Amino acid sequence: MKTLPLILLLSLVFSCNSSAQKKDKATQKTKEFKVSKTDAEWKAKLTAEQYHVLRQAGTERAFSSPLNDNHEVGTYVCAACKTPLYKSEHKFDSGTGWPSFDRVIEGNVAFSTDKKLGYMRNEEHCATCGGHLGHVFDDGPRKTTGKRHCINGAALEFVPSNK
């Protein structure tokens, strides 16, 4: 009589490990980007903080980036591959401690879903090299797009406009 519950328990455990739940190798392929480097090449090219943010999807400490308070006219580019990502005219002070923009330069930013914190967030990547930039939220300026692209300053470099 004691063996019946044991058999049922074991069959339940093994049935939860079906082939449908195993990851398919074809779906694990990573997206190919125009700019692609080895891990060692990225480490040699980027600072430790840039590597942590861009290649390991890290987050810099709030209010640590000088770009958060930058008010010059120009373009924010990817620190890894120099792709133009955001225009200064779309930057605003969100009070969050990270550079924030209400829109991207179309075609240069890619989006995915991030579930690392236990809930879904819209993650932003450089469309050219795949570097992690930050996340987009729906609490931006209502007079424009309503979006807040909350971006790590370490993922960006600023290129001033020629006046």
From TrEMBL:
Residues 1-20 form the signal peptide. GO terms for molecular function: peptide-methionine (R)-S-oxide reductase activity. InterPro entries: Met_Sox_Rdtase_MsrB (IPR028427), Met_Sox_Rdtase_MsrB_dom (IPR002579), Mss4-like_sf (IPR011057). Pfam families: SelR. Keywords: Oxidoreductase, Signal. Its EC number is 1.8.4.12. It catalyses: L-methionyl-[protein] + [thioredoxin]-disulfide + H2O = L-methionyl-(R)-S-oxide-[protein] + [thioredoxin]-dithiol. It is an enzyme of class 1 (oxidoreductase). Residues 39-161 form the MsrB domain. PANTHER family: METHIONINE SULFOXIDE REDUCTASE, PEPTIDE-METHIONINE (R)-S-OXIDE REDUCTASE. This is peptide-methionine (R)-S-oxide reductase. It comes from Gelidibacter pelagius. The gene is msrB.
